[in-house]
From TrEMBL:
Coiled coil: none annotated. Its main location: membrane. Keywords: Membrane, Transmembrane, Transmembrane helix. It comes from Nicotiana attenuata. It comes from the Eukaryota. Residues 130-268 form the EamA domain. GO terms for cellular component: membrane. PANTHER family: WAT1-RELATED PROTEIN (PTHR31218). Belongs to the drug/metabolite transporter (DMT) superfamily. Plant drug/metabolite exporter (P-DME) (TC 2.A.7.4) family. The chain crosses the membrane at residues 16-37, 43-65, 86-108, 128-148, 160-181, 187-212, 224-244, 250-268. The keyword S-adenosyl-L-methionine does not apply. GO terms for molecular function: transmembrane transporter activity. It is a multi-pass membrane protein. This is WAT1-related protein.
Length: 349
């Protein structure tokens, strides 16, 4: 009994564990990528190598594991239900927390592990407006990608192959953009250093593995469930950045992080209630009712909703049949007994 309970708990917890793990993976990519870009790595070339690594890693699995199953998405909200209200409110609170972490700093919070580091001051606010606009646009594109992925997976039921195609097309697009924006052949040079680590990590973890896991979870829980965990990455990056890069932590970041956690909990609670309702609806097994009509045919009545007795129309024999209102009738002939030959009168022989 305990083994079954633990197994059921693990099955239910798998989507949560997968999405939280992905946020740690994305956070690690942000830290490593920042270090690589600070050392002179071209961000155009980094995107090319990232998609190339992702394609090279995921394509063999797609070709082998899905060679036989490879085929030749929006969230509905009912504001009358409390669970839907919780999702909407949680989304608003989460966005507010993310905006608070981005727009408001406040006083610096001196942490124990950050007092021994010193970071040179840089003019990081000169492109603040341009960066904010680009981030908003990138967020809209990223959200659109989730919707397109959810819609595509309804018909293209091969997640590994879909991930390989996405990474391959991304490689071709990024190569074209890089040829236009970068004219120095030296930018393509890469060695066994942090630049190679950043490209490999971003490609393997944040592209190939992330796209596949997102697709699998999205197929079961929907795109809203997957994207609800994205703001959690900001908190992880802030903590990891203070450890590794000695970045400063501000009051605004802490308050925003608290709002993100509260909003995330509200959204996930609403999605959990919605999932349980759907699970209960799918678990209802229609009951069968059998009867015989006037034509001596057996009728199978499959109950769909509640079984309430109602009067059917009178059959040819004057009998009444009680049945359910929301039902589907399937009729087939009843087996007839063989005809017995009548013995002819002896006087006629």
């Amino acid at each position: 009994m305990e083994g079954k309970c633990s197994c059921r708990f693990y099955q239910r917890a798998k989507p949560y564990i997968a999405m939280i793990s992905l946020q740690f993976g994305y956070a690690g990519m942000n830290i490593i990528t920042k270090v690589s870009l600070n050392r002179g790595m071209s961000h155009y070339v980094l995107v090319v190598y990232r998609n190339a690594f992702a394609t090279a890693v995921i394509a063999p699995f797609a070709l082998i594991l899905e060679r036989k199953i490879r085929p030749k998405m929006m969230e509905k909200v009912d504001l009358k239900k409390f669970r839907c209200q919780a999702k909407v409110l949680g989304t608003i609170v989460t966005v507010a927390g993310a905006m608070l972490m981005t727009l408001y700093k406040g006083h610096v919070v001196n942490l124990l592990w950050s007092t021994n580091f010193s970071v040179p001051e840089t003019n990081s606010d000169k492109d603040w407006v341009k960066g904010s606009i680009l981030l908003i646009f990138a967020t809209l594109v990223w959200a659109s990608f989730f919707i397109l992925q959810a819609i595509t997976m309804r018909k293209y039921t091969a997640p590994l192959s879909l991930t390989a195609l996405v990474c391959f097309i991304g490689t071709l697009q990024s190569i074209a953009v890089t040829f236009v924006m970068e004219h120095k052949p030296s930018v393509w040079t890469i060695g066994f250093d942090i630049n190679l680590l950043a490209a490999a990590y971003a490609g393997i973890v944040s592209s190939s593995i992330a796209y596949y896991v997102q697709g699998v979870v999205m197929e079961k829980r929907g795109p809203v469930f997957v994207t609800a965990f994205s703001p959690l990455m900001m908190i992880i990056v802030a903590i990891m950045g203070s450890f590794i890069l000695a970045e400063k932590v501000y009051i605004g970041g802490i308050l925003g992080g608290m709002l993100i956690v509260a909003g995330l909990y509200s959204v996930l609670w609403g999605k959990y209630k919605e999932y349980k309702e759907k699970e209960i609806e799918e678990a209802i097994i229609p009951e069968a009712v059998k009867a015989v009509n006037g034509n001596k045919q057996m009728i199978l009545l499959a109950n769909i909703e509640e079984i309430n007795d109602i009067e059917m129309q009178k059959n040819s024999e004057g009998k009444r049949i009680q049945a359910a209102p929301a039902s589907v009738a399937i009729s087939f002939p009843m087996p007839q007994p063989p005809m017995l030959a009548r013995e002819a009168p002896k006087g006629l022989i």
